[in-house]
Amino acid sequence: MEKIEDIRKRNNSAFLSIKEDGAALKLDQSLPSLNLVLYGGRGSGKTSVAKAILGQTDLLSASSSSECVRNQGEMCGRWVSVVEMPALNGKPQQEKMKESFRCISLCEPEGVHAFILVLPVGPLTDEAQEELQTIQDTFSSRVNNNTMILFTTDSDPKHPDVIKCLKKDKNIKELIKRCGKRYLVVNSSDRKQFSKVIDFVGKREQSCYTSGNLFEGYLDKLQQKEEKIARLQSQLSKLLPQTGFSGRYLKKYFAYILSIILFLSLKIIYNTEMYNLIVKKVSSLTCL
Ligand SMILES: Nc1nc2c(ncn2[C@@H]2O[C@H](COP(=O)(O)OP(=O)(O)OP(=O)(O)O)[C@@H](O)[C@H]2O)c(=O)[nH]1
Ligand SMILES: [Mg+2]
Predict the structure, then answer these.
(1) Between 174 and 244, residue with greater pLDDT
(2) Residue at a domain's end among 154, 175, 209
(3) Ligand 2 center to residue 185 CA distance, Å?
């Protein structure tokens, strides 16, 4: 296993998967290849989905390396690359950036056709929502048109309970809306159902998300930060003359500070025994 890990690192986390049953690849040369990125919370089923799409049972998971892992194979006559992205939520910003670059570089030169949020049907976890937010923040809003959700279930995707869960749950409805209402439901144990993913993504005429989009997103962020700094600097330069130790304001501030010092010292003196003694002496003298 250690040797496989070394080979994986030398090969930039990229693999070519051969079908378990040894069946020959039936590639249709007229169909362009597809690059898919699977993301989601820890243990949400990303590796299981990659295995189902590629017809492989022995794939490396991103969680075991905590880095993006690419596996490739054939489905529906197409050459398909599946990148499993480890859960990014909660990682330091630098780590998220590093992983986003690694993810995009594994999909070059075409770019990513779809970022697929893998989610088991059921009550929505905070982790799934946070992961979507993290992807949208890390890859910028340019990623939105390429996002979709893949719900997995052990039962029939058309089962009333499944439909009820997706149509009635307020949080799930909101999540679907944030992904442009693009979603599919598949039975996780039926590999054939995963061809729906390839059909769905293959039919979309949406342009791919590329490394150019990622750089533009980071440049936007830099520009926003620069604008914020410029705004703060201008606010500060407006405030400085009011707080500076010069002119009218200086006299006002000094007068104010002096009066506080005077008041406090008078209070201390009035409360001291010495003062009481002096008062007693003076009053006895005046009585004479
Ligand atoms: N019942 C059920 N179990 C599933 C389903 N999908 C995945 N699992 C199980 O959930 C566990 C985690 O699945 P993985 O595919 O490893 O999940 P992952 O998102 O790759 O996990 P990490 O890489 O560790 O984040 C495994 O034991 C799977 O067998 C599903 O649709 N139904
Ligand atoms: Mg995994």
Answers:
(1) 174
(2) 209
(3) 19
Higher per-residue pLDDT: 6 or 235: 235
Most informative mutation of 13, 37, 42, 47 for ligand 1 (most atoms within 8 A of CB): 47
Residues 172, 258, single domain; the answer is no
Residues whose CB is less than 8 angstroms from the CB of residue 68 and which lie 6 or more positions away in sequence, other chains included: 13, 62, 83, 84, 85, 86, 99, 102, 103, 106
Does one domain contain both 242 and 140? no
Domain extent, residue 7, equals 2-209
pTM assigned to the model = 0.75
Regarding whether 275 and 134 lie in a shared domain, the answer is no
**How far, in Å, from the CA of 186 to the mean position of ligand 1?**
14
Mean pLDDT of 19-23: 55
CB of residue 187 inside a 6 A radius of ligand 1: no
Residues 49 and 146 in one domain: yes
Instruction: Report how many domains make up the chain.
Output: 2
Q: Is residue 157 within 6 Å of ligand 1 at its C-beta?
A: no
Looking at the DSSP bridge assignments, the partners of residue 14 are 70
Query: Ligand 1 centre from 188 Cα, in Å?
Result: 10
In the chain, % helix, strand, coil (3-state, to 5) comes to: 55, 15, 30
Neighbours of ion ligand 2 (CB under 5 A): 46-47, 61, 63
| Domain C-terminal end among 209, 236, 266 | 209
Buried b (16+ CB within 10 A) or exposed e, 162-178: beebbeebeebeebbeb
CATH at 14 = 3.40.50.300
Q: Residue 185: nearest ligand to its CA? A: 1
For residue 62, the ligand 1 atom closest to its alpha carbon is 23
Atom of ligand 1 nearest to the CA of 189: 31
Q: Is 216 a member of any domain? A: no
Residue 268 has pLDDT above 90, yes or no: no
Tens-place pLDDT, residues 38-87 = 999 989 999 999 999 998 877 766 666 689 999 999 888 899 999 999 99
